[in-house]
Design goal:
Layout lengths: L1 H4 L4 H18 L5 H12 L17 H19 L10 H9 L17 H4 L2 H20 L4 H10 L3 H26 L2
Helix pairs in contact: 8-9
């Protein structure tokens, strides 16, 4: 158990991603969370809801196993082999949070002052979660895939649109982190 729960070098997961990508490219499959959601919506509502969902989702049924594995793996990683010690957050991150008026998290990665039901019902919470969630969903559909799909599958198969999308993701992340988030939290 000590071997599994220890910190591993980043190259281990990188190598695993490379193996999965070779298998996906070899079999002609695509990878991405948004593709999984498309298959799920197609299974539930089908072509009745939108032409976008009018395709044979059964060919993509393996994605349901991937999603289930991600959920089960997250649970095992958090509750079975997870480190019971609080997450070590850098002093610079704590300072940046305090400058934004956000107390650092007492335990875990999420600041409790933002990630709670009362904050969700506030104007700031509405802007961050509801509108932000809509923009993420709309952007995923408009970009033809999510960050994992473009950054892993798209770049691995040398697709120029995925390179453009990944550059856009980074620019959007920088703008959000340094301009929009401080602006919203200062309201």
């Amino acid at each position: 158990m000590d071997f599994i729960s220890q910190s591993w070098h980043w190259a281990v997961s990188g190598f695993g991603i490379v193996i999965v990508m070779f298998l996906l490219i070899y079999t002609g499959e695509r990878f991405g969370i948004s593709s999984s959601f498309r298959a799920m919506c197609s299974m539930i509502a089908g072509k009745k809801s939108a032409p976008y969902f009018d395709y044979d989702w059964k060919q993509q049924a393996w994605m349901f196993i991937f999603i289930a594995g991600a959920v089960i793996g997250g649970y095992i990683g958090s509750y079975v082999i997870g480190d019971p010690n609080p997450v070590a957050i850098s002093a610079e991150t704590i300072n940046e949070l305090q400058v934004l008026g956000v107390p650092p998290p007492a335990q875990g990665l999420l600041p409790e002052s933002i990630f709670n039901f009362n904050f969700l019902m506030s104007f700031k919470g509405f802007l961050l979660f509801i509108i932000g969630g809509f923009l993420i969903g709309f952007g995923t559909r408009w970009a033809g895939g999510c960050t994992s799909g473009h950054a892993i599958t798209g770049l691995a198969s040398l697709q120029i649109p995925s390179l453009v999308a990944v550059i856009g993701f980074f620019i959007g992340g920088l703008l959000t982190t340094h301009i929009f988030l401080p602006l919203i939290l200062s309201l």
